[in-house]
Amino acid sequence: MRWMLPLLVLAMPIAAQAADPAEGRRLAEQWCASCHLIARGGPGPVTDAVPAFHVIAARPGRTEEAIATFLRTPHAGMPDHGLTLRQAQDLAAYVKAQGGAQ
């Protein structure tokens, strides 16, 4: 019976770790800031053709999970950065954090 606990611990999903919004910001600065306004009052793109992160975060139903899934799903108009699940989760946590009070 004692041998079962280590097996259960190993079987826990790695994705259960908390997302890191600070790492998400670093990723956003690297990959997203040329098209999106990634923080209120921050530098942004020369066009408003794409939504700012705070606008994305405020949309109904935009949970961190929904944003992470969207980021990993190919879609027109956005480059495929080949994000890992962890990178998408970190970036989604940062995007969602931008939806706070104005």
UniProtKB/TrEMBL annotation:
Residues 19-99 form the Cytochrome c domain. Keywords: Heme, Iron, Metal-binding, Signal. Pfam families: Cytochrome_CBB3 (PF13442). Residues 1-18 form the signal peptide. GO terms for molecular function: electron transfer activity; heme binding; metal ion binding. The keyword Magnesium does not apply. InterPro entries: Cyt_c-like_dom (IPR009056), Cyt_c-like_dom_sf (IPR036909). SUPFAM superfamilies: Cytochrome c (SSF46626). This is Cytochrome C552.
